[in-house]
Write a structure and sequence with these properties.
The complex is a heterodimer of chains A (242) and B (226).
Chain A (H helix, E strand, L loop, with lengths): L1 H34 L13 H28 L2 H33 L7 H22 L3 H29 L8 E2 L2 E2 L3 H52 L1
Antiparallel strand pairs in A: 1-2
Helix pairs in contact in A: 1-6, 2-3, 2-5, 2-6, 3-4, 3-6, 4-5
Chain B lengths: L2 H20 L1 H20 L4 H29 L6 H7 L4 H30 L9 H25 L5 H12 L1 H16 L3 H30 L2
The chains are: A mainly alpha (242), B mainly alpha (226).
């Protein structure tokens, strides 16, 4: 009955997480759109960064959770962990696609092109393809246990691949502006940093909130399918008897 | 020889004997690649210089897609007469099965590459350097990477619907680093550039091979679990 306890805990906190997301995103959007100065070089265009960068961060965070959850699933074979992985993958794919889309919108005025085969764009595209492949495997495999195992193997392989992909395309070509926040320190004006941090936190909370809801949904679906199977079985048995 | 290596050798031997008897895989791969070369020559009207510039890219497009054919067959051929179940039931560790299949797939792909490379050079009429030993290193490292991940994914897709479609969809994004590194290193080797210019790509290929052979070897257990 541990699964039910987990779900009860999740249900108790999900309202707070959702509320926190709404609060952070509201404050962040206000700071980003009205309360912060325009960038010296990029002008008002820079404001899309407050959506683009948090989306990209959250997508990567989601992929890390997916890989961790997959390893845990292969170890413990806990069905709700598998539901969580499935939910994370779908959400990460959405966030990755949105990050690419907002990046394209940002790229048009700043680089004067919608698309370029720059290192980070390329590695995000590959990440999106890996996630879509994962989701496709989950839909074409009918057997629940197999779908979960295959998915977990794919997610772990992709996670190991991610740094190698990143380095290979980085060497291949680089045009993207260097990361503003790194281990060496922050190279961004503080007026621009505050909304970015608030938006990043908000986006992660939003991701977690949607993840909580979707995991429960997938878990209930699984229970429903199992119940349907049992009822059908009983029905056929009773017909065979009579 | 330890039993571990012996089992790998037997699995490799089995696949090679089957291939020698029916010549199905290698023949279909070579035939497919010839059609790819034909389509390339229709698609781009090239003079010698243009062909020289894109040769490495064309080579690896052809190799990757012919490789898909060989990889796809390596496990789907075992479905006949329930051979796959027999392999799963065999009292050997799953890892030997994986490594044996990787060796067989590597062998098929490498043979096809060796057969195809001269055709590329002749049909596109390009000048290449005479010493091709470094090119062989590039080919073998890149092919090992494709075989390491590809064999795992071939085993993963063998039981699922639309496996012919799913294998390339899953495999190609994963081997993006192999493709980039292979194309860059092949370019370097064909031009006769000094090794130091494309050495990082060879190192990347080697790292990819080692990492993915180990991870796939370990993951194979979870894929083959009946």
């Amino acid at each position: 009955m541990t699964i039910h306890r987990v779900i009860r805990h999740v249900q108790r906190y999900q309202g707070w997480v959702g509320g926190g997301a709404a609060l952070c995103l509201t404050v962040g959007l206000y700071l980003g759109l009205l309360g912060s100065p325009p960038d010296y070089y990029q002008g008002e265009v820079v404001r899309i960064m407050y959506i683009h960068v948090p989306l990209a961060h959250t997508a990567l965070l989601g992929y890390t959770v997916l890989a961790g959850g997959s390893a845990w699933y292969l170890w413990k074979r806990d069905p709700i962990i598998d539901n969580m992985c499935h939910a994370v993958a779908a959400l990460s794919a959405c966030f990755t696609a949105l990050a690419l889309l907002t990046g394209m919108i940002w790229g048009k005025p700043t680089w004067d092109t919608w698309w370029t085969w720059d290192a980070r764009l390329t590695s995000f595209t590959v990440l999106l393809l890996i996630l879509l492949g994962y989701l496709m495997v989950r839909t074409v495999v009918d057997d629940l246990d197999k779908a979960a195992r295959y998915g977990a193997v794919l997610a772990i392989l992709g996670f190991v691949d991610l740094p190698i992909i990143h380095f290979s395309v980085e060497w291949w070509r680089t045009l993207h502006q260097p990361q503003s926040i790194s281990m060496r320190g922050v190279s961004i004006a503080s007026g621009l940093l505050a909304p970015l941090v608030v938006m990043s936190v908000g986006m992660s909370l939003l991701f977690s909130y949607m993840l909580m809801i979707r995991t429960q949904l997938l878990y209930l679906n699984r229970l429903l399918d199992a119940k349907k199977g049992r009822l059908l079985h009983q029905f056929h048995m009773s017909k065979a008897d009579s | 020889m330890t039993p571990f290596l012996k089992t790998i050798r037997w699995i490799l031997w089995k696949d090679l004997v089957i291939e020698l008897r029916c010549r199905e895989t290698i023949a279909s791969m070579v035939f497919f690649a010839l059609i790819v070369i034909l389509i390339f020559s229709f698609s781009f009207s090239m003079d010698q210089q243009a062909a020289h510039d894109v040769l490495a890219g064309m080579i690896w497009v052809a190799f990757a897609f012919t490789g898909m054919i060989g990889l796809g067959k390596s496990f789907s051929a075992e479905l006949q007469n329930d051979c796959l179940e027999a392999l799963q039931m065999a009292p050997v560790s799953r890892g030997t099965l994986y490594l044996g299949k990787v060796a067989a797939n590597f062998a098929f792909m490498f043979v096809v590459e060796i057969l195809l490379f001269p055709m590329f050079v002749i049909l596109f009429n390009v000048d290449v350097v005479e010493d091709l030993s470094l090119l062989l290193v590039v080919f073998s490292l890149a092919t090992a990477g494709l075989a390491a991940v590809g064999t795992l994914f071939a085993a993963l897709t063998v039981h699922i619907r639309a496996r012919e479609v799913m294998l390339p969809i899953l495999l190609l994004p994963m081997v993006v680093p192999v493709m980039i590194a292979a194309v860059e290193a092949t370019k370097g080797a064909l031009n006769g550039d000094p090794l130091s210019l494309y050495r990082p790509w060879l190192e990347l290929l080697a790292i990819f091979d080692v990492v993915f052979t180990i991870v796939s070897f370990w993951m194979f257990d979870f894929v083959m679990d009946a």
